[in-house]
Amino acid sequence: MATKYYLPEDHTPLPPKSADVMTTCCDYCIVACGYKIYRWPVGAPDGGPKASENAFNTDFPSGPLQAWVAPTQHNVVMHKGRPHNVVIIPDKDSKVVNVGGDSSIRGGCIAQKCYNPDKPTNRQTDKPTNRQTDKPTNRQTDQRPPDLAPGADQRYSAAGELGLRP
């Protein structure tokens, strides 16, 4: 159940050697820094702290400025009808952008954007909200949305009558 306050996770699982590995990019800006996604079924054994037991090939706990997984880099998603863990971390193999696995704080939280019915993302499809008011949007198609840009209709109509692109 989603809460209106932050409940920090006290455990972040490490991906096992058998985890699926995919690549993606950050969509927060036009740079498109690279990230790796590790996915494995919930209930399957997680990776262990030894390098031989996890997909990162790193001993944990790791030293300063070495690989680690923050709670914001983990989420649970549905894949083929079953819950799966996902860990999304900066791609250390990237040779062009975010070389060596650097990331912004926003990019480092991409996993939190993945749909999870038990987290605030559950509102994205079932109960979308207006970003300015945090109130549910009206899903009736015959009702006009709130006027967030007064006069926009008149400018749009005038531009259309003149054959201009609004």
TrEMBL record:
Stretches for region Disordered: 115-166
Signal peptide positions on this chain: none
Pfam families membership: Rieske_3 (PF18465)
Protein name per its UniProtKB record: Arsenite oxidase subunit AioA/Iodate reductase subunit IdrA 3Fe-4S cluster domain-containing protein
Residues of the Arsenite oxidase subunit AioA/Iodate reductase subunit IdrA 3Fe-4S cluster domain: 26-121
Species classification: Bacteria, Pseudomonadati, Pseudomonadota, Gammaproteobacteria, sulfur-oxidizing symbionts
Bias (Basic and acidic residues) ranges: 120-145
Organism: endosymbiont of Ridgeia piscesae
GO molecular function ontology, one term from the record: iron-sulfur cluster binding
